[in-house]
Amino acid sequence: MAFDYSLDFKNIDFRAHPELYRVGKGEQGVLLVEPYKSEILPYWRFKSPEIARESSEKIYEMFLAYLEQDDFVGADMARKFLQMGYTRARRYANHKSGRKYKSNPQKELSLEAQQQARQLILPYEEDHYKAESAAIFKQKWQIAKTNPRYLLLLNQHKNRYEL
């Protein structure tokens, strides 16, 4: 099932109500699902390779701790933060401003305007420093998403709640 953006995220404790959580695709919901967002976000940084290494190691430790507690939602959120560390650092590695498009396609009202905005890509500027940060997060994300315990809990969650 797709990630459900219609939920009242400000008032739901997903630790108490894991049945409401949907994995979705990629990083969906990473900045919405509480209390995990508030627990993980303070450690999410990628400004330099040193900061990215420290951040990814801390978030990976949290991932393992959630798995130890059989807390699939927490583990999945930590996995999403690792993935987001990779994708955001990679975006800054490709575009100094961190913005890929000249204007935000999501703010355009019509589908045609959104498609046109996606054509206006800012110039590619490789930043090897940010690329290294991205690689650090990617390594931890790959380890997390293939962890056997995570995969077992993912399967159990989907079978129990996402049928």
Written overview of the protein:
The protein is mainly alpha-helical and 163 residues long. The protein contains six helices and no strands. Helix 2 runs antiparallel to helix 3 (72-94), helix 2 (49-68) runs parallel beside helix 5 and helix 3 (72-94) packs antiparallel against helix 5.
Radius of gyration: 17 Å
Name the helix and strand elements from N-terminus to C-terminus, one letter apiece. Answer: HHHHHH
Protein structure class: mainly alpha
Spatial shape: globular
How many angstroms separate the termini?
A: 7 Å
Q: Considering DSSP H and I runs of 4 or more, what fraction of the residues is helical? A: 40-55%
Report the count of strand segments.
Answer: 0
Pfam families: DUF4385
Organism: Dulcicalothrix desertica PCC 7102
Protein name: DUF4385 domain-containing protein
Please render the helix and strand layout as text.
Blueprint: H1 36-40, H2 49-68, H3 72-94, H4 111-119, H5 128-145, H6 148-161
What does this entry show, briefly?
This protein is mostly helical and 163 residues long.
Can you give keywords for this protein?
163 residues, mainly alpha
